[in-house]
């Protein structure tokens, strides 16, 4: 008997602004651009990709492309998405090693 699986989508579990902010904070702390773009995509899907794209001033298709695994969002797109999610980016000194 074959094992039956269902696709996992983290967006369906990030149903609070706090959970979404926690994922994004973790992504930004790593400094990994691909992870940051992925996390933004997950949160955008959780909030509604069409509305996030509209609020960010980009097309829905353009947003999907920018936040895909092979996408590389422009800084203006990244900042627009962050702003449309009602979030801000804060910069602070990195801890000394």
From TrEMBL:
Superkingdom field: Bacteria
Record InterPro entries: HI1420, Lambda_DNA-bd_dom_sf
Protein name per the record: Addiction module antidote protein
A family per Pfam: dnstrm_HI1420
SUPFAM superfamilies xrefs: lambda repressor-like DNA-binding domains
């Amino acid at each position: 008997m074959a094992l039956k699986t269902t696709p996992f989508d983290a967006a369906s579990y990030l149903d609070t602004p706090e959970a979404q902010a926690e994922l994004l904070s973790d992504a930004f702390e790593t400094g990994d651009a691909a992870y940051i773009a992925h996390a933004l995509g997950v949160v955008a899907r959780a909030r509604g990709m069409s509305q996030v794209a509209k609020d960010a001033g980009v097309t829905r298709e353009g947003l999907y492309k920018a936040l895909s695994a092979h996408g590389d969002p422009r800084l203006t797109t990244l900042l627009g998405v962050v702003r449309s999610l009602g979030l801000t980016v804060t910069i602070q000194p990195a801890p000394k090693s």
